[in-house]
Amino acid sequence: MQSTNDPDNSRITPPSRVTISQRWRFWALILVCGVAGALFTGWMLRPPRLPELTRAQLNQARQLWETRNPAAYTLELTVTGTQAGEYQTRVAGGKPVSVTRNGQELRRHTWEYWTVGGLLRVIDDELSAFAPPAVPPPHNADKDLDQPAANIVMRATFDPQWGFPAQYQRTDWSTGREIQWRVTKFAVDPP
After folding, report:
1. Cα–Cα separations (whole angstroms), residue 185 to 19, 26, 110, 165
2. Most exposed among 53, 63, 124, 165, judged by the fewest C-beta atoms under 10 Å?
3. What order of strands is seen across the sheet that includes strand 177-188?
4. How confident is the model at residue 53 (pLDDT cuts 50, 70, 90)?
5. pLDDT tens readout for residues 163-184
6. What's the whole-model pTM score?
């Protein structure tokens, strides 16, 4: 038998009750932390952003390509956006001998565009077309001449050994259209 003088007997307290609002706060906190964690993880795992293209980068890459220009090579690239597909270009004797898209041969008059020299020219043409004019024409002096170019963002990386455009991306923010390519294989072939 327990003594009535037992100090522990006199301090019996009822179990604490968790209110509905406390439970709601707990689950809301869990949800917020879960969403924040998912967003942070997605941000950390995003693909790295390509650097913006500059004329100096393009000129340096072109100079490297023209210096190292192999007479025979195979180039494979993945294109998304306009003309999406898997492209393979074979060059021999400095000329394209085969260009396929998704395994189907393209028309010969388009082959040059899919060589390294052709890709560098396409980038050069787009950079020239979308760059703001160096000197504003007098009849447009009151217009914001940077506006059309501001809608177009071009990004690229070039192979440090050969100078070919390893990745290229052009985004038109006014239309939401984008074209991108990534070289998946470049191999110098025996002559």
Report:
1. 62, 52, 20, 12
2. 63
3. 104-105, 95-101, 85-92, 73-80, 177-188, 165-172, 152-158
4. very high
5. 999 999 998 888 888 899 999 9
6. 0.68
